[in-house]
Design brief:
This protein is an alpha+beta fold and 195 residues long. The chain folds into three domains: 4-60; 75-105, no CATH class; 118-194, Alpha-Beta Plaits (2-Layer Sandwich). It is 52% helix and 19% strand. The protein has seven helices and six strands, in the order αααββαβαββαβα. Strand 1 (76-81) and strand 2 (84-89) form a beta hairpin. Helix 1 (4-15) crosses helix 2 (20-30) and helix 2 (20-30) packs across helix 3 (36-72). The longest helix has 37 residues, at 36-72.
């Protein structure tokens, strides 16, 4: 039938908002005499491909921007030769890399621990971390917050979850065991409750 493709395009526009180019491409891909369902499927595939292409372009743009940042800061330089473009570290780039490696060796672990099931016991954590190790104190407070402990005072926290092994291992690795005390009790309450 003459005008069938035109009719399909018009129907595609009538069923929902489509970009003109996408609609026409979907009709052409679906083939002559295709059902509206097949045209819609083709349109969905076109949109998915566009999203993937957009993501790739964003990743490429991010990479180019990052290379530009490294070049601008004098950390890398381009060298052209034999029809190829090579990138190498500058003296400043090597020094920065060495500094970053050194920093990573002293980096704190992530404070995001998965809290375990309540242990049935109340756990109180008390700590007194020296000021020169303030970053460890900040890390510990963040970790306790993720473990659903509540702050009673800045250095006294209360909770009922069992402490994960990873958390205890990280305390030891950070040499904080001399500054942190952990108490567990099966009875909790105030003096008024006991009397």
């Amino acid at each position: 039938m003459k005008g069938k493709i035109t009719l399909q395009v018009l129907q595609a526009f009538g069923d929902g908002a489509m970009q003109i180019a996408d609609c026409i491409e979907a009709v052409i891909r679906a083939g002559y005499g295709a059902s509206q369902g097949k045209i819609s499927r083709e349109h969905r595939l076109i949109r998915e491909q566009r999203v993937q292409t957009g993501r790739r372009r964003q990743e490429q743009l991010r990479a180019y921007n990052f290379l530009s940042y490294l070049r601008r800061d004098g950390l890398i330089e381009e060298e052209r030769g034999a029809g190829r473009k090579l990138i190498r570290l500058t003296r400043r780039g090597r020094a920065r890399m060495k500094d970053l490696i050194e920093r990573s060796l002293h980096a704190l672990p992530s404070p995001r621990y998965e809290p375990e099931q309540p242990s049935g016991a109340a756990t109180i954590i008390v700590f007194d971390i020296p000021e020169r190790e303030r970053h460890k104190r900040v890390w510990l407070r963040s970790a306790l917050g993720h473990l659903r402990f509540r702050m009673i005072q800045k250095s006294v926290w209360f909770g009922s979850a069992k402490l994960p092994r990873e958390f205890l291992r990280d305390l030891a690795m950070l040499h904080m065991t001399d500054y942190v005390e952990i108490f567990q009790t099966t009875r909790a309450g105030t003096l008024r409750h006991i009397i």
